[in-house]
Design brief:
nucleotide-binding; binds adenosine-5'-triphosphate; two-stranded antiparallel ribbon; alpha+beta
Length: about 500
């Protein structure tokens, strides 16, 4: 087994021409402490419990001593932020260290919070402990939920003060992804009219991540179509699980369709289609129910900046495929949540799905708990009904809905046990609710006690399993005010 300092690598992004990035060494965190090391992610790199330990990890994560395979750089990108084009963004606090060849694929390794870069503008290049804990936990929670995401390898902190509204401890998250290319990387070259570099970027994504597209008649169109498909699938996954990203600027849209940049995100507690998790989003541009539409808006930007490589009409036709792709993927996920997967054409269940969401909204029902409780309900009324009713303001509304649901179930074949098991695999018991993250942050900040971070990491890796000893983590927040995140600014 190789150690962290000897990992096989192939730093392909670093071989791209000048204009793609700036070389930049990390500004080391002084006297770093390890908050958490994630063995599940380390295995992706070919490490195990004997090689993923101790000082080497701390040295890499804090930027104090990088292995020889690292060639740290900050990449250049632009982006539309809240609908406004910003020509220069770039990695202002993230550094790409290199690309490791793991046993089952390549992984780019990034530090987030490693100090200033040429793209930092007027900011400090740092991340604070509280927002880093949120990113670390949520990326692994999303992976546990089966939702495409960047991964988190490790989290380190330091007493170095970082000034936000108050002085806070600094931190660095070590992130992994097959690629960190964003829509904004394409916008960067288009805005500078560097169409040859735009083409090189598209070639890079194809060769690096989707070489099968090379054999298609129009590889750049196929690339756009692939991004559209992956984005539609990602939005379906977010909407089905109740995840609100909060800052869907085009620079936060991953070309691979990964969830990227965990800032003011939030999972829905009670169901509210219009929920806004980002306090600076005054117009609700990134509200929960706006996400699929905003993703299309961002895809339109991407298609427009790829036009030097594309036939215009073909690009428009590709964009027209987004809505049906999203709709089909979302209905399929919702049908599975209802325990009706594959039992009739998915469109026929659309009215039931819509009616269910309307009821949840009207009754202010906890979204995650509703689906999990429903997973225990049988074809005949039973004790599981009582737990479901308890989630409603008006239990009679639950009874009426259950009656209709059971009529629909009667049209399906199969045993209750099998359906319930399939529903428990579609409806998580555990999500990273804001109040859980808050608790872990408080212990880490106040006492330098990271046990709660690590407990949540383990819990959220298996969100569909019962884990009875931790069942209280599935409870709704003590009061609905917990929906308001006090730790989500960066
Ligand atoms: N503290 C900071 N120092 C320097 N640059 C920053 C800082 N915070 C944000 N930026 C930069 O501002 C822009 C928008 O920030 P945004 O919050 O979307 O990204 P981020 O959280 O820093 O990182 P990422 O998108 O890589 O997860 C990016 O160019 C980012 O690098």
């Amino acid at each position: 087994m190789p150690s962290l300092s000897q990992l096989p690598h192939q730093n392909r992004f670093a071989r791209l021409p000048e204009g793609f990035f700036a070389w930049q060494a990390p500004d080391p965190l002084p006297a770093p402490w390890l908050v958490s090391a994630n063995l599940a992610a380390a295995r992706l790199l070919g490490l195990d419990e004997t090689t993923f330990t101790g000082q080497e990890l701390l040295n890499l994560a804090s930027g104090n001593q990088l292995p020889d395979w690292c060639q740290p750089l900050a990449s250049a990108y632009a982006g539309h932020q809240f609908g406004v084009f910003v020509p220069q963004l770039g990695d202002g606090r993230a550094l790409l260290l290199g690309e490791v060849l793991g046993p089952e694929g390549h992984w780019e390794v990034q530090l987030k919070g490693a100090g200033m870069t040429p793209f930092s503008r007027h900011a400090d290049g740092r991340a604070v402990l509280r927002s880093s804990i949120r990113e670390y936990l949520c990326s692994e929670a999303m992976h546990g939920l089966g939702i495409p995401t960047t991964r988190a390898l490790a989290l380190v902190g330091s007493d170095l003060p970082v000034y936000r509204e108050r002085a806070e401890p600094a931190a660095v998250v070590v992130r992994l992804a097959p690629s960190f290319v964003r829509f904004g990387h394409f916008e960067w070259f288009y805005a500078r009219q560097q169409h040859d570099l735009l083409r090189q970027l598209a070639d890079y994504v194809i060769d690096h991540d989707w070489p099968d597209l090379r054999d298609t008649p129009a590889p750049y169109l196929a690339l756009l179509q692939r991004v559209i498909q992956r984005t539609a699938e990602l939005m379906a996954a977010w909407q089905a699980v109740g995840f609100c990203h909060g800052v869907m600027n085009s620079d936060n849209m991953s070309i691979l369709g990964l969830t990227l940049d965990y800032g003011p995100f939030g999972f829905l507690d009670r169901y509210d289609a219009g929920h806004i998790c980002n306090h600076s989003d005054h117009s609700g541009r990134y509200a929960f129910d706006q996400q699929p539409g905003v993703a299309l808006w961002n895809l339109q930007i991407l298609a427009s900046v790829m036009l030097p490589l594309l036939d215009r009409d073909a690009a428009i036709a590709a964009l027209e495929d987004y809505a049906p792709q999203f709709e089909a993927a979302w209905l399929q996920r919702m049908q599975a949540k209802l325990g009706l997967a594959g039992s009739q054409p998915v469109e026929q269940d659309a009215p039931l799905i819509e009616a269910t969401l309307q009821l949840l909204q009207q009754q202010q029902v906890d979204y995650t708990r509703f689906w999990r409780q429903l997973s225990h309900v049988g074809r005949q009324a039973g004790t599981a009904d009582l737990n479901l009713r308890a989630l409603f303001q008006d239990p009679a509304a639950c009874d009426a809905w259950l009656q209709g649901y059971r009529q629909r179930l009667a049209l399906t074949s199969g045993l209750d046990d099998e359906r319930q098991a399939a529903m428990c695999a579609a409806n998580p018991k555990y999500i990273l609710r804001n109040h859980l993250a808050e608790q872990a942050i408080r212990q880490a900040e106040d006492d330098r006690d990271f046990s709660e971070v690590n407990r949540l990491l383990g819990l959220l890796a298996k969100p569909f399993e019962e884990q009875p000893e931790l069942a209280h983590y599935a409870e709704a927040p003590p009061d609905w005010a917990a929906q308001i995140c006090v730790s989500c600014s960066s």
